[in-house]
Amino acid sequence: MSGATNFSFANLHDVELATHAAAGERRAFGELVRRHGSAVRGLLRRMGAQASEADDVAQDAFLTAFERIAEFRGEGAFAGWVKRIAARAYLRRLHKERRLGPLAEDVADEPDAAAPDADAAIDLDEAMKGLSAAERVCVTMCFGAGLSHAEAAEALNLPLGTVKSHVKRGLEKLRARLAPGDDASLAGRRGNG
Fold first, then answer.
1. How far apart are CA 24 and CA 70, in angstroms?
2. What is the pLDDT of residue 143?
3. What residue ranges do the domains of the chain occupy?
4. Of 27, 63, 123, 139, which has the most beta carbons under 10 Å away?
5. How far apart are CA 183 and CA 26, in angstroms?
6. C-alpha 29: how far from its chain's center?
7. CA angle, corner 81, sides to 11 and 37, nearest 5?
């Protein structure tokens, strides 16, 4: 296919693109990067990476994905597969730079972001800023990158219960920030769990 100059990969499904990429068609992989690059960078930003670091880690993740594209079988979404690669790459970077240590502790001393004005619109990225670093990383890994609690615990080198606690507290804070008018039902759910 690389000889066909008018061929467009834009209309192909991710699995078809991955098949072409595994056969050596770089333009097919380029289309995957175009489709999913901003989502991968967004995931990394939610995990706490600064913009330039998110760009670097996303690039590394896509290089790894390109090298391992033959391993992608299409059993799940390509976006989820590359996000897991990116999340693990970011965590390796944090471990290497020894910035991950505070996640093992209960991060109760981090200030919560001010509660949003009831009339103010808030988005997920803004709400994520109100979580502690541990909550943000755990929630992002489990819901943004699609890792199980056990996979996140292994990647973070934390006890499974600690990851579950960070995810639970993080989700409660997100619910409260994203649906401030629903505080009564949230309080009722807390009492039942």
1. 10
2. 84
3. 1-99, 103-193
4. 139
5. 50
6. 20
7. 60
Residue 124 C-alpha from the chain's centroid: 13
Domain 1-99: give its CATH architecture: Orthogonal Bundle (1.10)
How buried is 25 (Cβ within 10 angstroms: 0-12 exposed, 13-18 middle, 19+ buried)?
Answer: middle
Q: What is the pLDDT of residue 190?
A: 41
pLDDT for 158-173, tens place per residue?
899 999 999 999 999 8
C-alpha 151 chain-centroid distance: 13
Give the Cβ contact number of residue 132 at 10 Å. 21
Q: What is the value of pTM for the model shown?
A: 0.65
Give the tokens for residue 186: 């949230």
- Residue ranges of the chain whose pLDDT lies below 50: 1-4, 104-121, 183-193
What CATH number was assigned to the domain covering residues 103-193? Answer: 1.10.10.10
First to last CA, the chain: 56
Q: How does pLDDT run across 81-112, given as a tens digit for each residue? A: 999 899 889 888 887 876 655 554 433 334 34
Q: Confirm if 144 and 126 have CB atoms less than 8 A apart.
A: no
- Cα torsion for 162, 104, 147, 139, to the nearest 10°? 80
